[in-house]
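Recall that a protein's primary structure is simply its ordered list of amino acids. Everything else, from secondary elements to tertiary packing, is in principle encoded there. The following example makes that idea concrete.
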Amino acid sequence: MKIKKNKILTLVNLGGPRSVSEIEVFLSDLFLDPFVFDLPLPEFLRQKLAKFIAKKRAPKVAKKYESMGFGGASPLVSETEKQAKVLQSTLNLNSEFKWKVQIAMACGYPNIRDSKFSKPSPNEIYLPLYPQFSRSTVLSTYNILYNKFGECPIGSGGIVPNFGNDPKYWKLYADFLIEYFLGKLNEKQFLHYDIYPKGKDWREMNLVFSAHGIPMRLVKKGDKYLEEVASNVKGIIAQLKSQGFKGSFYISFQSKVGPAKWTEPNTIQVIENLAKQKKDIAVIPISFVSDHLETLEEIGEEFREIAIGNGANSFYRIPAFGVYPKFIEYLAGIVLEADKKVTSCVCLELGGQSLDQCRFKNRANS
C-alpha cells in the first residue's frame, strides 16, 4: 500500500477578535502593519499613533461587534475554520497527498507570525483568501512571511496567487449569484441569510459590487487594486449577461477610516442614489469570501437601513461564499497547482513595490 505524502495548506485571512478581550489586540495588529496603516511618518511615530488609534477605537468597534449577535466577537475566524475543514476533505478526496488544512490570521489569533506556521514550500502552502491583489492585504501577507523567514515567499512553490482575475472564478461567481436569486443555495450554510422572493426577476436588479476601500495613497504607490476589482466585475457581468442579465451594475467602496482620500465612489453614496430612485438593490461583497463585520453589520444592517430609509423598493445582501461547494472545489483546484504559474515579481507589478531577496526582482525591474 502506497503511503500518501503529507502536505499542509494554510488559509490566510485578515482576522477578527474571537472574544471582546481580543478587540484591541486585533486593532493593534491591524494598525501596526505598515502596508495597512501607511502614513508618511517616521516609523516610531507611526507605531505610536497606531497603538493610540487602536486603543481609542476599541470601545466603538466593540459596540459594532456586539450588535452582530456573536457574543461581542467576529465570526470571521470560525467561518474560515469551516472553510478549512471542508477544503481539507475535498483535497483529500481529489489528491494523491494527505492534506492538513489550517488557518492563520494576519491580525489577531491564530496569528500567522506564530512559530507553528512554517516556511512556504511545495509541502507548506499558503492561500491568502483575498481575491484581488492589494498592498494592504496580499502584499502585507507576503511581507509578514518575508520578515519571518528572511526571503520573499513568491516563487517558493508554497504560495497560491490571488485569484480574482481568473475567468473560472468569474464563472463561479456568476453561478453563485444566479443560484442565490433562484433560491438554490443552502440557506443553512450562511449567516444572516437574506431570502430572495420567488418569482422576482433577478435579471432587472441593480447590482452594487461593494469592495473594501483603500486609501488613494496606496494607489499612487502603484497598487493595482482598483484595476483588479474593475476587471473582476467586468468578467462576472459578462457571465451574467450570457444568462440573461439586463439590469444595471455599479462598483463602489466601503469601510473608509479617517479623513484621507479613499477609493470612490463610496457604497453609501451609490445606495442612497439608487434608493431615491425607488430601485431594487442587491449588494455583492466582491472583495470578501467569508462573512464578517463588513458584510453582516456594515452591508446587512447599516446599508440596508440607508437604502430603505431613502425609499429603495427592496434591498438584499448577497452572502460571501463561505463553504459554497463550487467555491471550495475551485480553491482545491488552484491549491493543487500552487504557484507554478508565478514567473515574475507580482508584488512589483500589482503593488508597486518589490520585497527584498525576491528571486524575480531583477527580472521585473529589467
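The CA atoms of residues 151 and 357 lie 6 Å apart. DSSP finds twelve helices and seven strands in the chain.
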